[in-house]
Design goal:
3 helices, Gyrase A, domain 2, 4-stranded antiparallel β-sheet, 27% helix, alpha+beta, 36% strand, 4-stranded mixed β-sheet, single chain, disordered N terminus
C-alpha cells in the first residue's frame, strides 16, 4: 500500500512538472448533451451568443500539436494552421467521422477564439484556426511548437 501511494505521488509530481514546461494551452471540446450532468458537461456561452454545453474533458490538447503556421487574418487578428501528431490525427479523424454535424469549441490559453462545425472527415491531422488569435498567442505557440518551414529554436 505504501509503495502504491508513493508511486502515485511521484506520478503526480512528474505530471505537474511536465505541465509546467508548456507555455501555450490548446483545448478542443465537443458539444455535449445538457442531460449528461455536471460531471461530464459544462455550460458555456458560444461566440454566437448561444448557451451550450461542452464536454468537460478535451478531445485534443497542446500535447498532440507538433507544429503550426501563423498568418494574419482578414480581421487583423492572427490565424494558424496546427499540425497534430499521430495520436491527435487519429482522434481528430475519429471525431470527424463519429460526430459529424457537431460543433468543436477551441480554447487557446483559456480563450475561445473560434468554433468549428464538423462538416466532413478530417484525416490529415490539421486544424485550421481562421481568426481570433493574438500576437501573444503566436509568441507562446512559438515557444512550444515547431514553426512550419523552420527548425525548432532551442
Amino acid at each position: 500500500m505504501r509503495s502504491l501511494l508513493s508511486a502515485a505521488l511521484v506520478f503526480s509530481i512528474a505530471c505537474q512538472a511536465e505541465a509546467g514546461l508548456r507555455h501555450c494551452s490548446f483545448r478542443v471540446h465537443l458539444t455535449a448533451n445538457a442531460n449528461d450532468g455536471d460531471a461530464f458537461a459544462q455550460p458555456v456561452r458560444s461566440l454566437t451568443g448561444r448557451d451550450v454545453y461542452i464536454d468537460k474533458t478535451p478531445w485534443i490538447t497542446e500535447r498532440e500539436v507538433t507544429a503550426f503556421c501563423p498568418y494574419r487574418a482578414a480581421d487583423g487578428s492572427y490565424a494558424a494552421l496546427l499540425v497534430l501528431d499521430d495520436h491527435g490525427r487519429t482522434v481528430l479523424d475519429t471525431l470527424s467521422i463519429e460526430h459529424r454535424g457537431s460543433q468543436l469549441f477551441i480554447f487557446i490559453n483559456g480563450r475561445p477564439p473560434t468554433e468549428l462545425q464538423v462538416d466532413r472527415r478530417v484525416s490529415d491531422g490539421k486544424i485550421y484556426l481562421p481568426a481570433g488569435l493574438t500576437e501573444t498567442d503566436i509568441k507562446l505557440m512559438n515557444k512550444d511548437w515547431k514553426l512550419l518551414g523552420h527548425t525548432k529554436r532551442k
